[in-house]
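Fold sample X.
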Amino acid sequence: MLAQPTPGDIVSWLKPTLLGQVDDNLALLTHWLGALAIKLAPTGWEAAFARAPFVTMLALTLVATWYSVYALARHPAAQPVAFAFGGEAKPADYARALADGGLLALLACLGLAHRSHETTPFLMQLSFGAGLFFGLTHLGRKRWHGRLAIAASMLGLTLSGAPSMALMLGVGGAVISTAMPADPTHRRLSMLDLGLLALIGLLCITTAGALDLWRWRIAPHALLNVHDMAQLMAWFTWPAWPLAIWSLWRWRGQLSQIWLHPHLALPLWFVIVTFGTSWFTGISDRVLLVALPAIATLAAFALPTLKRSLSALIDWFTLLFFSICALTIWVVWVAMQTGFPAQPAANVKRLAPEFVPEFSATAFTLALLATLAWAGLVKWRTGAHRSAIWKSLVLPASGAVLCWLLLTTLWLPLLDYARSYAPFMKKVVDVTGPSPCYQYAGITKPQGAGLIYHAKVTLKPLEKPLPDCAWLIVDQQNLPLLSQRIESLGWTEQTRITRPTDRFENFVIFGPVPAPPTVPTSR
């Protein structure tokens, strides 16, 4: 029989802590899904299963973005002008082409490649933001699909640490959907729809209040930092943002009555809310993830208006940019394996002085196949083929995927060494030897998680030395504030350890003060 959960177990799930501190992001759902995946994992597969919810969320983001662009493109306000004698694309075919372009624009964004592999609450916020976007675009076409998507996404955003964003996006999107004119493919919202949206908003407010998820996150020091915000937006949303701006320019005649044109109003609302949230909370690139599906949507609606010369410029720039990036990755990898060219090998040695490169036949094969596929795609794109409006985004999307794949195959051992705490914790274990327990003081939550996972120890707060917990780990930055208390409890410094790839991150390791030698008494 299964044991009944105790009140302490329930509290630990509703208020997960690390080193006695709650998660700063207040993202309960992230911890719940990750912990549930680990509990369901077979022995030895815990790390892979822990990533499964995040991989699923990324896949749902891609699917939701495609269907959102498709629904918006089916609206009469987004359809191209019909030809006098017919021959224009059918609405469904036109919508599919734009949806393909929107998906390619999302895949091409550098921000998605940079952050999509992380197991963080912000990837879940991206997924639920895309789900909310999907729900709002389908509310007038497939009512129950839209209602369920909106309810699940707003509640998911709330439990992922973004209750304010959930309410702003949901309420604003509902207002836009209410103002949307009715037509054969989109019905007006009924009073039942509005009542359900109000109940969903109330549920999010109640849930956030009951679980204490509301926080004041405004960062006044960042409000005037326009340069950093513009720089972040420029690279994080590249190459979709130039197309999104071009789309707004070419569709500018509809901006004066934007509430009648949901293919502009909905994505623009998502972009404004997300950019505003990122700016007011401290210019965070992770928050900008939620804006990527909306920016990709605006970029998709620029495709029918691109001239052939501009499309060719995009192709050539993309070809040069991603080919140079791929070549750089290969050259550095060869330098790591052989020592030639000498300069890249010296740079790797300087940045990761204790790193030992390793060769993986599987990773090399995957990287080689991806590079050959890129070459074949370039040959196809430069050939004479039937024109399609999404062809301008094939190379940007494929180039971003290529570089991401090369980094996660050829450079994966180096990236793991540079970003992981495993080498750092190995140096700690080499000093202390196998130990079931460490005491800690003044360390960060990532450092604590690294000790628990890589050193396989239990952590206890600072107290006197114990027989089964005879080592104390202290972050050197916080040592001046703790030194007197540490000495008073009977600890003595043993050594200091520096993280191999970060000379500013150091541990001070303490052991118990040795007992004075006994002096034999004379008779």
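Fold sample Y, listed below.
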Amino acid sequence: MSSDTEFDYGKDEELRSREVTEGADKAPHRAMFRAMGFDDEDFGAPMIGVPNPAADITPCNVHLDDVADAALEGVDETGGMPIEFGTITISDAISMGTEGMKASLISREVIADSVELVSFGERMDGLVTIGGCDKNMPGMMMAAIRTDLPSVFLYGGSIMPGEHEGREITVQNLFEGVGAVADGEMSPDELDEMERNACPGAGSCGGMFTANTMASISEAIGFAPLGSASPPAEAESRYEVAREAGEIAVEAVEAGRKPSDFLSEASFENAIALQVAVGGSTNAVLHLLAMAAEAGVDLDIETFNEISARTPKIANLQPGGERVMNDLHEVGGVPVVLRELLEADLLHGDALTVTGETMAEAIERVDPPAISDLDADFLHTVDDPIHERGAIRILTGNLAPEGAVIKITGEDHLHHEGPVRIFEREEEAMAYVQEGNVESGDVIGIRNEGPRGGPGMREMLGVTSAVAGQGHAEDVALFTDGRFSGATRGFSIGHVAPEAAAGGPIAALEDGDTITIDIDDLELSVDLSDEEIEQRLADREQPDRQYTSGVLAKYGQAFGSAANGAVTNPGVKDE
């Protein structure tokens, strides 16, 4: 299967795959490989694993077999021995608003666990990790970090936008349309027409939601070659990127270049700078914290505030804006934003990448256009930004001592104070909103949806979109110990930590308590004394765990705090 390229391993140690391919005692092992079409040439090549979460359960992943084939070709043509294997995925969009959404964050851990296990058990030398739907990306990168094998991340690409009445639409518009129909602002017939046109083919959701945010971050952090995040799922350039990923993986093995060689505090700060500049998903906070924990990089949640304070928001993409990933691709992709940040001294140009280049060298090689030279109204320069501060803020206070996360999509209404209406789970809050009970100035709190309490820390795009669809995106506040989707916009605060199940102050709230949210002062608090909170928590009866066996129970008990990435790896999680 391999090409005639002779492989020369650049480090002193032997390839790990020699343990199953070399020597007379490995004849049974080689026989197994020969049954799959491998030959003598392959046994002298580095074994490159290509974990592939292809599935027919989401458009994000439905095409990944084709993407994987191109990556396998790249490995083979560069002198590697490509080994494809499968892993799971969960469709966030399809499970959204249901009990099934509790599986989403758990799938991040299962993906990382499964890729780590196969790589370890089969003695692989390197990886090309492929991701489509939201949790694939962090799961795959976490696996690469754990194994510390030379690894390249490969994104499956985003879906093209749909069209409705002459404007581009995505699945975000559908979720908000549900709220608009409930409020009488949209007819069921119009919603039906949008449904039939919003998702025209394969690929991940098109806005700067979680999938595209993490794909963009894979470039900024050094796990993927520059320019690889933005080509659409069904474009020929997507398959060119896949072949390149296979080639780079073999080269990284030859050089002995591992994630621990290029991931650093500077890498993670570059990732955060990119996230806050493009208005990326709040989920990236959770995933970057988890990746840093796996990598042994000291990343505090307050770092997001520090970087947001100095890094302006310069891209106006969905959900806060109107444009999608393909619009960014057409003007040069993520490297355009990275160049702008580097030239403004907002990026660590000396951070290393999987190609062996520094970030500055990679940007110079790709030579993306300057934003000032583009006719792109959705991209602004650092000198003339959309917002002076980045989009992500971490709030603290007596309601969130370990922090809570919000993404700013507008400059107005940055202070909110009022009595809370507290709900014990997402479904209760959704029913309240759908019944038309929401009014301007309301504060909605949802608890028992954290990593352990859910379990699984559900995303609540259904609730936030219903509120937005009724015209209250900026004048109704929501907070939860669960998560909000990358497609969420408006005054929505997630990841409140400690969570209710861990005895966090959110568990002490009662209807009518006065909540203060101040974005400028980075505050999320309740008008209660410490003594009152402690007494209420002491008097509170902890709800029974909903799941006492099976995968939800197992991972629910293993999750750490959202403030540290909600990791389950016992070697790195908080206690």
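Sample Y note: Confidence is low (pLDDT under 50) at residues 1-7.
Also: Residues 52 and 86 are 5 Å apart (CA to CA).
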